[in-house]
């Protein structure tokens, strides 16, 4: 081999060794990867812990009989499932994805707390609810969980296929944001609604029924409605006539007085009669949370209970100073759950149920309904008492226009 001056360094590999070809061995260039004053430090402790867990997620570590640690690689399906669960908030849609796979994907996302983190929970639930509906959540019981509703309202709005919703004892009032969700088309499939003990007045009942009365949208499939322990009067009952499929109604402990005029209104306008025995549907024994997201709701409640309570004592003192001691006492008692159960047992329940045109009951489990219907027909021949004459017929007093000015204001809010 001939080397000219124009050529650079020439290397030759012989017998697996690389050597420099040059007439003078001292002319071999000295190449260094680092300079002499270069130093480095291996900082293992500063590496993020997430990177280590991701690497170990692909392996299953076990011990053999001899006590040695061995590992096996997970299947490609499990690795892919974990990857999708880690980025479930970025998935565009799961429509058409098999339900068996989606169930495992939901569990994997739940293990990664995708439904409890505020920045990922709404979108993650939306992806599953749009594709699987009632499989994610069919029935939701938030009884006496007022704090949970305020903390997780954005997540609760993603459930679009509920058939039963229990909000009893949440003290929401007339203008809570959750009522916009209840009256939206997302809950058109709702069959059972329990909103007792929510400080709901006639104005709140008007807002609740406005979409059905005016736009024929919302709670059109409602069959069971609980309005107990709300300050509603006979005036607000006229809004309930828009629920054409309503079968059972609870008006216990409200400002409604049971008389012949009230019974006549329900019989003529809504084909309902007063039940002599309490209806089991309003015992809240069958209402619970059902669906894939059942454990998610329980986790929300645990997280909400960990939120520190605000300074209730200074607020109590301030309200007492302004003459609202009674209001504060009642509110704190309701929040602590110390209700007078003895007085509740003494109150006679006011339950109405539907009857067909022949006057027979639509629910076969109540044997006393036939006698109640007979009493109602017999009451038509009676003369009105002085109390009923002074109050006037309820049906005439509650004839509402199809579209009032208040309804127009309500429509503007939706």
TrEMBL record:
Q: Which UniProt keywords apply?
A: Leucine-rich repeat, Repeat
Q: Does the keyword 4Fe-4S apply?
A: no
- InterPro entries, per this entry? Leu-rich_rpt (IPR001611), LRR_dom_sf (IPR032675), LRRC42 (IPR039631)
The annotated regions of Low complexity compositional bias extend over 362-372
Annotated signal sequence is none
Q: Where is this region: Disordered?
A: 362-402
From the record, what ranges are coiled-coil?
Answer: none
Q: Which family does it belong to?
A: Belongs to the LRRC42 family.
- In Swiss-Prot or TrEMBL terms, this protein is called Leucine-rich repeat-containing protein 42
> Source species, please?
Culter alburnus
């Amino acid at each position: 081999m001939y080397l000219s001056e124009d050529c650079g360094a020439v290397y030759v590999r012989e017998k697996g060794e690389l050597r420099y070809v040059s007439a003078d061995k001292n002319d071999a260039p000295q190449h260094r990867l680092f300079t002499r004053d270069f130093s480095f430090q291996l900082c293992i402790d500063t590496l993020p812990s997430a990177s280590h867990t991701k690497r170990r997620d692909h392996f299953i570590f076990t011990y053999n009989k001899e006590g040695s640690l061995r590992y096996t690689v997970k299947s490609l399906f499990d690795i892919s499932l974990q990857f999708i669960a880690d980025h479930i908030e970025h998935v565009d849609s799961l429509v058409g994805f098999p339900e068996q796979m989606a169930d495992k994907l939901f569990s994997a996302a739940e293990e990664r707390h995708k439904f409890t983190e505020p920045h990922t929970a709404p979108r993650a639930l939306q992806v599953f609810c749009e594709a699987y509906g009632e499989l994610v959540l069919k029935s939701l019981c938030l009884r006496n969980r007022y704090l949970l509703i305020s903390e997780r309202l954005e997540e609760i709005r993603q459930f679009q296929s509920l058939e039963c919703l229990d909000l009893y004892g949440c003290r929401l009032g007339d203008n809570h944001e959750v009522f916009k969700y209840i009256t939206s088309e997302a809950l058109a499939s709702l069959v059972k609604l329990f909103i007792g003990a929510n400080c709901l007045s006639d104005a709140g009942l008007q807002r609740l029924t406005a979409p059905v009365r005016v736009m024929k949208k919302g709670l059109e499939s409602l069959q069971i409605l609980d309005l107990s322990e709300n300050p509603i009067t006979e005036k607000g009952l006229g809004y309930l006539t828009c629920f054409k499929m309503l079968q059972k109604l609870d008006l216990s402990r409200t400002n409604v007085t049971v008389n012949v005029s009230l019974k006549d209104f329900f019989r003529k306008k809504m084909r309902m009669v007063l039940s002599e025995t309490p209806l089991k549907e309003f015992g809240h024994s069958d209402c619970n949370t059902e669906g894939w997201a059942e454990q998610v709701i329980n986790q929300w409640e645990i997280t909400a209970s960990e939120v520190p309570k605000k300074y209730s004592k200074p607020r109590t003192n301030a309200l007492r100073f302004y003459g609202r001691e009674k209001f504060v006492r009642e509110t704190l008692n309701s929040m602590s759950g110390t209700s007078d159960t003895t007085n509740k047992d003494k109150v006679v329940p006011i339950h109405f149920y539907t009857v067909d045109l022949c006057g027979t009951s639509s629910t076969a489990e109540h044997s006393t309904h036939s006698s109640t219907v007979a009493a109602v027909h017999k009451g038509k021949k009676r003369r009105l008492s002085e109390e009923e004459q002074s109050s006037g017929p309820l049906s005439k007093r509650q004839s509402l226009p199809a579209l009032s000015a208040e309804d127009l204001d309500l429509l503007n809010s939706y």
